[in-house]
Design a protein that fits this description.
This protein is of the alpha/beta class. It has 2 domains: 273 residues, Quinone Oxidoreductase, Chain A, domain 1, CATH 3.90.180; 128 residues, Rossmann fold, CATH 3.40.50. It has 16 helices and 20 strands. The structure holds zinc ion (2 copies). Keywords: Metal-binding, NAD, Oxidoreductase, Zinc. This is Dehydrogenase.
Length: 422
């Protein structure tokens, strides 16, 4: 659409050969030796000095495709050749200006890819775990690995991630890795800035993707599945036999259904306003569905659970109305888990006396814990317990990314869309 691929190829072919050789062939590895790297790893558009990325400039303007200098990884960071990137509502909140974020920026935070290069002086254990050429998946919450929370194993609260990435759009030295080819100006990164041909990811956010799992569908492990797992495992602490309701059956909500099924929930109720999403929900584990356009979901959930309400209700939309529904749907002593982001500053209302007397627990959850959870999620996907193919309802090409966000905004993506960046 905005990008002229042919022109790009010509420009890249014009890169001087010695420059390409320098960039492609000799990379210093971390044990200090030099090795011939796999030139195939750098074959995107015929050159390695530059790359393309999808840039968000200002709210409600289309993403544009821009040329960047090849990003450089720093200490304990890894340069990834991006293979696929999921289309998530959090990016859409940024694109619509609902969540303030540094701009211009590259959105996209749900990736798979191939390891290309390690930052200088990166720990040898990291280099061994993620050798050049390895397939990896990246979590959107990228733990620094050593802050107060990371050292307690709570990667999902990493101080550096929130202080630098979410607050400033940078990595943890306060700088972005993305600079425009045309004028060298910095472009910020939403997580790793995954909607680009290459991205730099802190190594603690990565896990090895086995050859048995495809790049495209596996991308959703890094946000949709990761977020669902964090909500179910850490916030709700779901037990076998629990009754669970999930309000909002989009990408993350439908992943919650699959995780609930994996955890042995006995009753799994999906709530949405679109019948096609509810139909899909049944295939992903829902034992009951409620179209909240036609029925009061809290009332119906009580009816389905002998008048008590569910042990765990999850709100995956981020709306004040569904926040209330979520709280009203849980049994006495039950857990209402909130995972839907919303307009910055939005408030939810709670009946205080009900909360106090009936011991309702309202719990926020943003995602999983990359280092401990990602390898487990990969196992769940590999064994088929979590069906990643069924969770991805559409794939599209890099150039179609902007349209994919428009479709997501209109509610016309049933499960998850994934952009292929090959
Ligand atoms: Zn996401
Ligand atoms: Zn940390």
């Amino acid at each position: 659409m905005w990008f002229n691929r042919a022109a790009f190829l010509i420009r890249n072919r014009a890169t001087p050969l010695f420059q390409q050789l320098k960039n492609n062939c000799f990379r210093t590895n971390n044990s200090g030796g030099r090795f011939l790297s796999n030139a195939a790893a750098y074959n995107v558009s015929g050159g390695s000095s530059y790359m393309r990325g999808a840039v968000f400039w200002e709210p409600n303007k289309p993403l544009t495709f821009e040329d960047f200098h090849m990003p450089r990884p720093k200490l304990n960071e890894i340069l990834i050749k991006t293979k696929a990137c999921g289309v998530c509502h959090s990016d859409l909140h940024v694109i619509k200006g609902e969540l303030p974020f540094a701009s211009p920026c590259v959105v996209g935070h749900e990736i798979t890819g191939e390891v290309v290069e390690h930052g200088p002086l990166t720990e040898s254990k990291i280099v061994q775990r993620f050798p050049v050429g390895a397939h990896v998946v990246g979590a959107f919450i990228m733990p620094c690995g050593s802050c107060f929370f990371c050292s307690r194993g709570q990667d999902d609260l990493c101080e550096d991630f929130f202080a630098y990435n979410r607050a400033k759009g940078t990595l943890y030295d306060g700088e972005t890795r993305l600079f425009l080819r045309s004028n060298g100006k910095p472009v910020y990164m939403y997580s790793m800035g995954g909607l680009a041909e290459y991205c730099v990811v802190p190594a603690h956010a990565l896990a090895i993707l086995p050859d048995t799992l495809p790049y495209t569908e596996s991308a959703i492990i890094g946000c949709a599945v990761f977020t669902a797992y964090g909500a179910m495992a850490h916030a709700a602490e779901v037990r076998p036999g629990d009754a669970i309701a999930v309000i909002g059956a989009g990408g993350v909500g439908s992943s919650c259904l699959q995780i609930a099924r994996a955890f042995g929930a006995s009753v799994i109720i999906a709530v949405d306003i679109q019948d096609d999403k509810l139909e899909n929900a049944k295939a992903l584990g829902a034992t009951h569905t409620i179209n909240s356009r036609n029925e009061d979901p809290a009332k119906k959930i009580k009816e389905l659970t002998g008048g008590r309400g569910v042990d765990v209700a999850v709100e995956a939309l981020g709306r004040p109305q569904t926040f209330n529904q979520c709280v009203q749907s849980v049994r006495d002593g039950g857990k209402a888990v909130m995972i839907g982001l919303t307009l910055s500053g939005a408030k939810g209302e709670i009946d205080i006396n009900h909360l106090v007397r009936r011991q309702i627990k309202v719990i926020g959850s943003y995602g999983g814990r990359a280092r401990q959870d990602l390898p487990k999620l990969i196992k769940l996907a590999e064994s088929g317990i979590f069906n990643i193919k069924a969770a991805v309802s559409r794939t599209c090409q890099f150039e179609e990314a902007d349209q994919a966000y428009k479709d997501l905004n209109e509610g016309s993506i049933r499960g998850r869309a994934v952009v292929e960046i090959m």
